[in-house]
Every structure is written in structure tokens, then in C-alpha cells.
Specification:
three-stranded antiparallel beta sheet, 266 residues, disordered C terminus, globular
């Protein structure tokens, strides 16, 4: 998730679950069948392909068209102010920008990083939610992420692009499944964790492995925010936070398997 200047386009409720036995659950994990890291569901591959397609169009368009496309798709706080409809995209973009900005990336590194995280963690969320719910959830996470950025940057001439707000939400869902009841990051490589009952929030934050992962992830966001170390624009940590909180709290609303098995997932 990057914020860039508009004149430069390159740029749950708590509760305890029952612990049903079965494959994929720590109490009876069954045989350890390796789960390839990038054994991604089709919806994740199609979404990553859409990111790449948009980036290629922008890269190979002329400067004027590329600049127009970035500004028409990006999330720009001043677009919601008086006179904002004069920006590329007009009145329609005032609404669509809350989702469309996720399809635009500032540079190849930005695109590669987001695609990597979505293939790794978004795949867990997609297998759990199913294609339709995964897309609906990702859209909600993108909207909340943009809203967090809007609240902290109201009226500023900034351009927000990138899918990492939505991906942060996908990561939050994956975290609740991967670290459930003593799981570690290695779990994602050993078996499909998408069927496991999610870790209750009250226990998630007392799970040492989960806390270490979250501290490292948040630390990277803080260290790179405003530094341009990894990409040309500022890392929009507030958008990442908004997306991540959406994943933690809204997961049960989209968790069809959790409802079917009466696990709760809160």
C-alpha cells in the first residue's frame, strides 16, 4: 500500500470453540502432507493476474494516458472534497476509488511484494471462504483500509495505490487459522490449515508465535513508512492497520465453513 504525490504516477466476539478432532486440526493433524506455498486457488491467481494486467497497461501506455489511469483508479482524499470531481474519473471515481485503487501499483517491486503476500496468505483465506466470499471480503477490507487512510489524511493531496490493505485483511484471516491452538508458520507448509477452527481473539494475542509474527510485520511497516526503502512511495501503515483489523473482526461474517461446522470462529 503506497501513498504518492498525484503528479507522479509511479508512484468478533470472544469465545471458546469446541476442539473437534479431524485432519488439519492440531489435536489430530493426520498425515503431514506438504502444502506447496503457492498452491493458490484460482480466484487468487485471477486476482494476481488482474493486478499484473493493470500494471502492464499503465507501464506501456503513454505518459499522459498512464497518468490519467493512475489518477482515475487511485484513492485520493481530495477527490471527496468540493471540486474533486474535476480529477480523472469524475463523479464515478468518488465511489469506485475505494476499491479500484487496489488494482494499481506504484512499481514492479510494489506489485511483486503484494502478489507474494497474497499468494502465501490470501490463498489460505480463499480456500476457507470460497471465491465469492473471498472477493467480497477483500473488497470490504480495501474499503476499510482506504477509510482509515482518509481519516488520517483528509484533504491532503495524496494518491493511495496498492492492494496491501486488502491483503492485510487476508493475512489476518490466515493468522487466525495458521496459529490456531499452538500452530506456527511451519504449519502452512505442512498441511492445509483452511479447515481448522480459528483461534479465538482472546487466545490469539497470548499465542507467542502469533504475537512474534505480528510484531515483526508491524515493525516492518513502521520502519518502512515514509522511508521509501522497499518502494518509491510511502508505506501507508494506517491502511494496512485498517485492513488487518477488518480481517480479525469481520472474518466470522464471511466464514461459511465455520458456520456450517458450528465452530463460531470468533
Amino acid at each position: 500500500m503506497n501513498e504518492q504525490k498525484p503528479d507522479h504516477p509511479d508512484h468478533d466476539r470472544l469465545g471458546d470453540e469446541a476442539r473437534p478432532d479431524g485432519p488439519g486440526y492440531p489435536s489430530d493433524p493426520g498425515p503431514e502432507v506438504p502444502e506447496p506455498l503457492f498452491n493458490a486457488p484460482p480466484v487468487v491467481l485471477w486476482l494476481a493476474g488482474a493486478f499484473l494486467a493493470v500494471h502492464l497497461v499503465i507501464q506501456f501506455a503513454g505518459d499522459q494516458l498512464a497518468n490519467w489511469l493512475v489518477l482515475a483508479l487511485a484513492f485520493i482524499p481530495v477527490r471527496l472534497m468540493e471540486g474533486g470531481a474535476a480529477l480523472p474519473g469524475g463523479e464515478v471515481a468518488r465511489v469506485t476509488q475505494f476499491v479500484s485503487y487496489g488494482f494499481v501499483h506504484g512499481d514492479w517491486m510494489h506489485l511483486a511484494m503484494n502478489s507474494f503476500w497474497m499468494l502465501a496468505f490470501g490463498s489460505v483465506a480463499a480456500r476457507r471462504l470460497g471465491a465469492v466470499n473471498f472477493l467480497a471480503f477483500s473488497a470490504l477490507a480495501a474499503v476499510v483500509a482506504a477509510s482509515f487512510s482518509l481519516a488520517l489524511n483528509w484533504g491532503q493531496e495524496l494518491v493511495l495505490v496498492g492492494a496491501s490493505g486488502a491483503i492485510a485483511g487476508q493475512m489476518a484471516i490466515a493468522v487466525r487459522l495458521i496459529f490456531a491452538h499452538g500452530g506456527t508458520l511451519r504449519t502452512i507448509m505442512q498441511r492445509d490449515v483452511s479447515q481448522a477452527p480459528p483461534e479465538p481473539l482472546i487466545r490469539l494475542f497470548s499465542n507467542r508465535s502469533a504475537v512474534i509474527f505480528l510484531v515483526i510485520w508491524l515493525g516492518i511497516d513502521v520502519l518502512t513508512a515514509g522511508s521509501g526503502i522497499l518502494t518509491e512511495g510511502r508505506i501507508a501503515w494506517e491502511a494496512h492497520l485498517g485492513g488487518f483489523l477488518t480481517g480479525l473482526l469481520a472474518f466470522p461474517l464471511f466464514d461459511r465453513r465455520g458456520r456450517q461446522h458450528n465452530w463460531g470462529g470468533h
